[in-house]
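User: Can you model how flavin mononucleotide sits in this protein?
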Amino acid sequence: MPKLFDPIHIKGMELKNRVMMSPMCMYSVVKEDGAPNEWHDVHYTSRAIGGTGLIMIEATSVEPNGRISYQDLGIWSDDHIAPFQRVIESCQNYGAKVGIQIGHAGRKAMLEGSDIVGPMGEAFSDKLLQPRSLSTDEVKKLVESFAMAARRAVKAGVDTVEIHGAHGYLINQFLSPRSNQRTDEYGELLKFPLEVITAVKAELPANMPLLLRVSGTEYNEGGYTIDQMVGYCQHFKAAGVDTIDVSSGGDGPKGPSEVYPGFQVPLAARIKHEVEIPVIAVGLLEEPALAQHVVSNGQADMIAIARGILRDAYWTNTAAVKLGSGVQLPKQYARAY
Ligand SMILES: Cc1cc2nc3c(=O)[nH]c(=O)nc-3n(C[C@H](O)[C@H](O)[C@H](O)COP(=O)(O)O)c2cc1C
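Assistant: Here's the modeled complex, given as structure tokens:
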């Protein structure tokens, strides 16, 4: 059975271990131009030195009005290529592979004064801004925006791209029967997500893997369940997704009734076994023995750590020591162990 510190190949990408730094918005773009700055360089590079196999750069918007806040990262312009290249190269220099999570917040954008859009003209809640419904042509243009974002990510030197299809953001909004009752062709729930996947895939080199983050279940009345998501994932796989990163919730006020270490793992395991596709499990997996167990008992191919790796940039190195993995730690830090 594989172990957490065994390398893994996903298409042409070889990772030195099965730990992903989960995408986490840092709301740290000071100039509101979407470009990463010195803070992002240090934040991500320290996780590379910390031993992380795959660093997934936070949700990065494909359009200015797809940001959650004005401090979000963006990749809607060629001007973003160089600053992303700097962060990516820096992480790669310390042995990590790097992806960018590309997404659009849709009706969950909290951009006072911007054009807020969604599949429908209904607000997510009375605390969020009122969106307008996208026209059919605008939806088609958004597919192109995702493709252009992927093209720029590849130019910036990524090892993979992850499409953000989870947490109630735009792709999830189209996928959910709760938020998509459109009467045009995009009322077909899978149409927009599948077009985005196909368009993004076409921009990636043939051996570069495409990742997709989904919410395995929505927890809210009228939303999809894990049974439906398993069916959706068959289509995502056929359209070219190589690995599914399985989170949950987001397109409604309700969350899981209970949250405990590994609470989302069964969702990942179902998708892995029923769709026969590699999966990444996430959610309170920061106890190294648990993370190892999830991989070794075949519930997931990789695990992602979010809050645990915010608290400890060296989470992966520490886990390697705790698990007695024999992994070589940075020589500069050898005397510490
Ligand atoms: C500060 C913060 C920002 C986040 N931003 C994103 C994001 O940009 N994209 C995403 O898919 N999930 C995001 N998440 C969710 C995490 O990636 C992860 O799925 C979640 O925190 C559960 O993992 P954990 O228990 O290891 O923290 C964020 C979580 C946190 C704590």
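A couple of observations from the model: The CA atoms of residues 125 and 253 lie 8 Å apart. The first strand starts at residue 8 and ends at 10.
User: Helpful, thanks.
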